[in-house]
# Entry
Amino acid sequence: MARITRSLDEALAPITDGCMLAVPRETSGVAMAATRALIRRGVKRLHLVALPTSTLQTDLLIGAGAIATLETSAVSLGEFGAAPRFNAAILAGAIHMRDATCPALHAQFQAAEKGVPFMPLRGLIGSDLMAHRPDWKIIDNPFGNDDPIVLLPALKPDVALFHAPLADRDGNVYIGRERELVIMAHAAARTIVTVEEIHETDLLHDPLFAAGTLPGFYVEAVAVERRGAWPLPLPDRYGIDAAHMSEYARLAATPEGFAQYLDRYVYAKRAA
Amino acid sequence: MTEFRDEELLADVICRLIGDARHVAVGAASPIPATAALLARERAGLHNSNRLYVSLLGSRAHTFFTDGARELFDCAGQGRIDVFFLSGGQIDGEGNINLVSVGDYERPKARFPGSFGSAYLYYVVPRVILFRTEHSRRTLVPKVDFISAPGGSPDNVVRPGGPIALITNRCLFEFDRMQRRFRLASVHPGHGVEEVVENTGFAFDRPAQVPLTPVPSAETLRLMRTVVAPMLAEIYPQFAQKVFGVAAPLPSAHA
# Structure
């Protein structure tokens, strides 16, 4: 049963050094306050899986030295340009990169949620991604005739972490249309969620909420963190903080600037 | 003739390439294709033709998906998306695209964001329009350093999709899937064939007389500027501001 924790740090305790951590794309609810708390705690050697892409969150974790392995389909700052710490780390060979493609990651999480070892996917054959992913295999479709198709192994993260608008006292979490958060939670061994606020009645008792709710059964811990996605957007709640993103892009262009950013917005505890 | 910006010309060309379609999807970091798709939807509405569905990745207002980020790919896998757009840090003459890195993959000289959904969508969406505004020998190369997604596949690989065209800031190429080769279709106003040859790293076919890309009509520009631009501001606020002078929505982060 999910617990509503008193502090963010208490909720984040299961994210230990070296664990496989799954996080969502920028527009689905990224737990940025939690990410800053993890960096303050000095988390190390994460195997980060960003479903299926990432922006500021991954760049920040890489710059802070928290990531050993990164598995995702793309990292950039969107309209704010390239992800500077990601690019620098790749050029320096400082992280192990497992390049993917968006639907492959979705399929790998779906395999995990079904409890099956793999999922087939079209495409991919002839892409150089295959050459660098020995864990992705081509078989001949057993139901077809000379029909090569790729099999992708199930991906079972230790922890999934995201930010959502609401949770109730039982740890049921309203995720609305961001259904990949449900798939992430089903696939991961444990799920930790930060939310804007606590909803005082049972989300599962209201049919309008229930269809967009991740049941507390799948949730390990919930922490309330208002504006917990800032400076990234939270669907239907708030938009991206463009001025802040521009400032990040400018500062993170150099290691010195990035260190300044950490001092100002991460180690200074209260950002927003 | 009304004055127009390069982005407006490119969106108009892409809109014509979209042609008759039921569902056009637009991926990440694609503001010009997004402009074209929304313009195509407005035109379809005006001409009372069949409804054109547009799905802009990252938008709340301009998408009908309710089943999470995977729905786009599952939809495409079933053939329910007619048109999609891809770009590349490098694109070569066989239509291979590279969204990963320059130089050796293990020790790259430059890194791009990554392959996004290209290694799948390029195979399954029937009409993929390639766009790369920077038209230079750096971007249009003889052979890409990393194939995120190939321009073509062997006959036994199930592949209903692939490229139909490549649009740049200088010209429009059409792609011949049988030959796996580009053909120069038109050159944009203010640009010339020799300039295109000089700035293209791969060989391509061209007719004896290369047409000039038609300029957007006054009505098209009006639709783009008054109807489409405010829609773009939701997910491409910087672009909408720069190209159309539409104020970005205020960040509510400090509200």
Observations:
- The first helix of chain B runs from residue 6 to 18.
